[in-house]
DNA sequence: CGTCTGCCTG
DNA sequence: CAGGCAGACG
């Protein structure tokens, strides 16, 4: 069916990921070696990151273990598997990624023992998924060499991508699972028999999978119809989703996120039921018990996810006011919602052009995400955190869009590892601290990234988050932006119609566009503006737009910002005039006797006004400008020019030319 | 005509 | 610091 498409998608996504991620950012290709990734990350990561990772890892381990029946098995098979799977891997691009390579062989799971039942459960689920995907690996490994041929054929047929990352590793586990099943069904069956049966199963599963996909596609289409019109990406995404066979679940979840409230409801419910049915059918061949368990698990998970989705959506809708911050955060932070974030980020960040593929990959990734999420997410986050590190304040803001905050990194916590949710949250906290703002995450420019980790901009972002509109604008504005504002939009937030092209255009030309675009100016913005006044007394609207990337500019906002600076100037000139007159009154005869230093009363007054917290080092240039201004006033007053109603204008003209460049740091929405 | 600016006022 | 107003500019 969609084999070709999925592959492409996969490739593109994975490739993009790799490219984008580079060594620093390990965009987890969710499907890939999620398990392996962590290790790879370690190698690259800093000590701190490693430590963090470890912590996280431990938590995760449990989940991972679920997937893998036994370490020993995995280890034993690993050799064969890797080799056998290599071909598929390579074909799938996965091999391309450096991170992947690293990962091969070592599995995080090894460290952690898991409860048997959990393992078994996980293994079953995974197995089923695999089978559905029709992964050759599973057969190969499970059946052994004899089946190799068949397996290869299958492989080729499916080619795919679906095997993706997971599969690489899956083989080991799979073997287990498959074998187990087979045994149950046909104790005496030979390998060949097993192969045949497996194939049959695979076919069945595949068919089911396809039908499920169709259903999903339909759902997505529906959504699209309603919302996509405004959002082109939607279409893309939809298409992608349809193409990718893997993530039925992912798709559904994705759809949920994307989908608006009402539609979500209906669609989700239907989707869920459908999925469940499919699952049932799939499981028939398997042992009753197993199938039942699986069914239960899947059902629960699916329903849970769907419910969560719906709940969230409704919450958002219902509390239009409240939704703002708290909700947003929640949404983003919630594991369920996080689902696609990681993927989105990846995909989006790369480029617009890739949007389509991204969307596709996203959907597919989502499916796997349930499993992979853990490791992958973490990996990303860790890597990010580590890399971003404390960049110097004065940064050369590189245009390249770095992966923003990992906040969302946790992909979708689907069903399998409910426990992960907590761990993810903890992870997040560990990495970013309690303040980490979700809003800034995705699109944060490099500079922002650096700062935010430090919680420097906490107040800023936090404030921003509160902005009512923020959430809505979020997604939309970002996407369009070339920045790579990633996909948080569709995922977490309901699609809101673009209000104006302003933001979009702004985003496009403003590399620093951040996610937390808000409509209103916050006290943080005021503070920032005041500090900026030390550099520029007459900022142009363009400058303001550039340096307030997290503000959704409209006439009002622009006027307000301009007004602020007008007020700043007013105060500034008043002080100047005041001190100039004071100097004259004090009998100062030479302008040269008038200086402005950090000890000056004038400076204190100004600093008190623009830098009340005194936590900002006022640039020397400002002192110079202040002195010049003071001299101007002194001279003018001395010359009794003040008798002219517009005598100050001459001074303004002089001063307006003294603006200096604003440090790049200010471009960071999170500055401060 | 809209925008920006400055001044005045609260 | 915001509103209102008026003047200058393109």
From TrEMBL:
Which cellular component, as a GO term, is one annotated location?
Answer: cytoplasm
Q: Where is the signal peptide?
A: none
Which superkingdom, per the lineage?
Eukaryota
In residue numbers, the region (Disordered) covers 76-114, 159-188, 344-383
Which GO BP terms sit in this record? Answer: anatomical structure formation involved in morphogenesis; central nervous system development; embryonic morphogenesis; hepatocyte differentiation; lens fiber cell morphogenesis; lymph vessel development; pancreas development; retina morphogenesis in camera-type eye
Q: Which InterPro entries match?
A: Homeo_prospero_dom, Homeo_prospero_dom_sf, Homeodomain-like_sf, Prospero_homeodomain
The family database entries (Pfam families) matched by this protein are listed as: HPD (PF05044)
Name its cellular compartments: Nucleus
Q: Which residues form a coiled coil?
A: 195-222
Q: Where is the composition biased (Basic and acidic residues)?
A: 344-365
Keywords, comma-separated and alphabetical: Coiled coil, DNA-binding, Homeobox, Nucleus, Transcription, Transcription regulation
By its UniProt entry, which Gene3D superfamilies does this protein fall under?
Answer: Homeo-prospero domain
The name under which this protein is listed is Prospero homeobox 2
């Amino acid at each position: 069916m969609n084999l070709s498409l999925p592959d492409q998608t996969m490739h593109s996504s994975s490739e993009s990921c790799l490219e984008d991620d580079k060594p620093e950012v390990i965009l987890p290709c969710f499907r890939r070696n999620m398990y392996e990734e962590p290790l790879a990350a370690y190698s690259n990561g800093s000590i701190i990151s490693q430590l963090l990772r470890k912590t996280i890892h431990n938590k995760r381990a449990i989940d991972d273990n679920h997937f893998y029946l036994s370490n020993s098995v995995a280890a034993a098979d690993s050799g064969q598997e890797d080799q056998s799977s290599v071909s598929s891997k390579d074909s799938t691009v996965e091999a391309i990624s450096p991170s992947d390579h690293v990962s091969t062989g070592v599995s995080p799971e090894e460290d952690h023992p898991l409860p048997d039942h959990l393992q078994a459960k996980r293994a079953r689920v995974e197995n089923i998924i695999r089978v559905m995907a029709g992964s050759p690996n599973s057969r190969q490994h499970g059946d052994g060499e004899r089946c190799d041929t068949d397996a290869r054929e299958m492989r080729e047929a499916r080619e795919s991508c679906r095997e993706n990352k997971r599969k690489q590793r899956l083989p080991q586990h799979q073997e287990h699972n498959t074998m187990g099943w087979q045994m149950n069904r046909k104790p005496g069956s030979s390998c060949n028999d097993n192969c045949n049966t497996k194939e049959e199963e695979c076919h069945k599963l595949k068919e089911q999978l396809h039908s499920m996909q169709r259903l999903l596609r339909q759902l997505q289409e529906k959504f699209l119809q309603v919302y996509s019109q405004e959002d082109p990406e939607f279409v893309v995404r939809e298409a992608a989703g349809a193409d990718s066979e893997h993530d039925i679940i992912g798709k559904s979840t994705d759809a949920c996120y994307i989908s608006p409230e009402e539609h979500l409801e209906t669609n989700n419910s239907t989707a869920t039921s459908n999925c469940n049915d499919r699952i049932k059918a799939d499981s028939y061949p398997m042992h009753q018990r197993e199938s039942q368990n699986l069914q239960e698990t899947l059902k629960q998970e699916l329903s849970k996810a769907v419910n969560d989705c719906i709940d969230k959506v409704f919450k958002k809708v219902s509390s239009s006011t409240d939704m703002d911050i708290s909700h947003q955060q929640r949404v983003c932070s919630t594991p369920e919602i996080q689902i696609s974030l990681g993927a989105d980020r990846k995909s989006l960040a790369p480029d617009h052009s890739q949007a389509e593929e991204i969307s596709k990959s996203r959907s597919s990734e989502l499916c796997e995400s349930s499993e992979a999420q853990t490791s992958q997410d973490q990996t990303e986050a860790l890597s990010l955190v580590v890399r971003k590190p404390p960049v110097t304040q004065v940064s050369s803001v590189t245009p390249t869009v770095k992966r923003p905050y990992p906040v969302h990194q946790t992909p979708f916590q689907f069903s399998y590892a409910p426990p992960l949710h907590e761990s993810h949250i903890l992870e997040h906290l560990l990495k970013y601290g309690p303040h980490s703002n979700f809003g800034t995450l995705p699109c944060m420019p490099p500079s922002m990234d650096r700062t935010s980790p430090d919680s420097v901009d906490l107040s800023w972002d936090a404030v921003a988050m509160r902005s009512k509109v923020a959430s809505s604008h979020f997604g939309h504005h970002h996407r369009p932006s070339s920045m790579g504002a990633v996909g948080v939009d569709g995922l977490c937030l309901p699609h809101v119609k673009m209000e104006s092209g302003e933001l979009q255009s702004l985003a496009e030309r403003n590399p620093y566009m951040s996610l937390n675009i808000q409509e209103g100016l916050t006290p943080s913005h005021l503070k920032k503006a005041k500090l900026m006044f030390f550099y520029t007394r007459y900022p142009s609207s363009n400058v303001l737009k550039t340096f307030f990337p997290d503000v959704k500019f409209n006439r009002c906002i622009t006027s307000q910002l301009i007004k602020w600076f007008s007020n700043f100037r007013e105060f500034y000139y008043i002080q100047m005039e005041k001190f100039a007159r004071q100097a004259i009154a004090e009998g100062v005869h030479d302008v040269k006797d008038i200086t402005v230093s950090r000890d000056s009363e004038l400076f204190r007054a100004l600093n008190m006004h623009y830098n009340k917290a005194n936590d900002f080092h006022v640039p020397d240039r400002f002192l110079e400008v202040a002195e010049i201004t003071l001299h101007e006033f002194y001279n003018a007053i001395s010359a009794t020019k003040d008798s002219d109603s517009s005598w100050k204008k001459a001074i303004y003209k002089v001063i307006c030319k003294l603006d200096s460049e604003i440090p790049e740091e200010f471009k960071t929405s999170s500055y401060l």
